[in-house]
Amino acid sequence: MISIVQQYGLAFLCWDGYKISGLAMTLWLLIISCAIGFCLALPLSIARNARSPFVWFPVWLYTFLFRGTPLYVQLLLIYSGIYALDFIHNTPPFNEFFRQAINCTILSFALNTGAYTTEIFAGAIRETAHGEVDAALAMGMSRVTMYRRIVIPSALRRALPAYSNEVILMLHATTLAFTATVPDILKVANDAYSATYDPFDSFTAAAIIYLCVSFTLIFIFRRAEQHFLAFLKP
Amino acid sequence: MFDLAGYGPQIFSGTLTTIELSVFSLLVSFLIGLCGALAKLSKNRVLRGAGTVYTTIIRGVPDLVLMLLIFYSLQIWVNDFTDWLNSLQDTYDIEVQLDPFTSGIITLGFIYGAYFTETFRGAFMAVPKGQLEAARAFGMKPALVFRRVLFPQMMRYALPGIGNNWQVILKATALVSIIGLSDVVKAAQSAGEATFRTFFFISFAGGVYLLLTIISNGVLLLLQRKYAVGVRRAVL
Q1: What is the pLDDT of residue B234?
Q2: CATH number assigned to the domain comprising residue B21
Q3: Which residues contact A75 (CB under 8 A, 6 or more apart)?
Q4: Shortest Cα distance from A147 to chain B (angstroms)?
Q5: Domain of B108?
Q6: Residue B95 in 3-state DSSP?
Q7: Which of A118, A161, A221, B232 is deepest in the core (most CB within 10 A)?
Q8: Given CB atoms, is B198 within the 8 Å cutoff of chain A?
Q9: Which of B11, B65, B73, B170 to mutate to test the interface with A (most CBs of A within 10 A)?
């Protein structure tokens, strides 16, 4: 264990000698895909609750497709499936984009977490107390103002516990990046395993790092809940 | 459109492997979850502590990391154990080889057992205390109380959680192809590489998962109806 930490400690944390790796890479994957997923989910969750089936059906289809299939299949589809298409191969901007493993990884992670987050936010918006909406309309707010001032802020607050779960699950899902050769924590652990033939120590080192990140995230979200959901305290 | 280029049987057997793996993992994790929940709710402090450590660590570490950790280490531990057994006697040569399927069941069962522990713990706590006291007052032994009163009512509260966990297990079986099991993803991958139609075959595998999800949603709805017999729902 000590020799693995000495030899691979820096790689586990941030730098493998050539590029960013390990913890820094995992956190970057987590933050960028959650940020894109959040921006995607906000408008989609409003569309998900629309009255017209032309609006809500495509969103429902998107969340159904991405929540009904494993993330590994989605990653494979985007990483090796799309790049194998002639059309993508022969269009320079697409070729450039899909040739990079990290772009494919972030795209699939963001689309996946976007689907789950959409359903979480849509559920929270659906649960908005009807009195709040009535009051907003009685105050003469336009629909945009009502969503901006009343519906979205309260829905995001109520969605916070479920959203924190989703972020933790996303952290766990980032391990799949190593199958697409992105040098995250698990890739470093796998390299250490191939070099030392010591699976227990190599993967335990990775597990400990992930455990620390999980606990840190849980701590941050608990503080956020205390701050944003203070009005719900008994 | 659905030209499988002769890979149909391979993909079909891969699908069966996926289903078998998820069903067996569900059974294992179900049993571990029941034991874990009983341990976490027991009066014994050691059992409670062990249950808490188990669920905290397993739910804090990604499943793929645990899978690689257990899959590669389990064989070494089993080898050490059989070597030790062989050193005690020399009439038999004991050798146990773990294939990806067995270790997949063990690891998935062990990982999702922690999630089931939490599901069942909540469900056990939701059964009214008076029911258990009434059962005991009727002179039922603890095992009978569990079988006739606690378990059937607990299942009603646990079913949504079980359904969620089942969907997650079904999708987590895709990870087992990383450690070399020839499931539907692996079959689709090799078919795609051989025919240069990766996109089609991977989408096909995704379609198989979608189909399984739809079927299990239907089954869950039926189960929920069965376990909700005699419950009056509030009409809003």
Answers
A1: 59
A2: 1.10.3720.10
A3: A104, A105, A108, A109, A176, A179, A180
A4: 26
A5: 8-227
A6: coil
A7: A118
A8: yes
A9: B65
